[in-house]
Specification:
With 84 residues, the chain is mainly α. The protein is built from four helices and no strands. It has a single domain, classed as Monooxygenase. Helix content is 83%, strand content 0%.
């Protein structure tokens, strides 16, 4: 694995894991009222498009980061729509 790929994977890990505290908080409190639905809808679309882009160019850090981020942002969107 190249140094460039390793840097990409570490960056992907950091930016993806950043959503975990929000997922946990929304899950525990059953509340997402302070989160912007519009922001998360646009963000999730962007993450989905990054995932498609990563798949098209076969870039592992982009694929992994955006697949996990899409899952986490989808969970937050679920809480926003259900408990928002």
């Amino acid at each position: 694995m190249s140094v460039v790929t390793l840097i990409g994977l570490v960056a992907a890990f950091c930016t993806t894991i950043a959503f975990l505290p929000q997922v946990i908080k929304s899950w525990k409190t059953k509340s997402a009222k302070d989160l912007s639905l519009g922001m998360f809808l646009i963000f999730s679309l962007g993450v989905f498009l990054w995932l498609v882009y990563g798949l098209l160019i076969n870039d592992l850090p982009i694929i992994i980061a955006n697949a996990f981020t899409l899952v986490l942002s989808s969970i937050i969107l679920f809480f926003k729509l259900r408990h928002g």
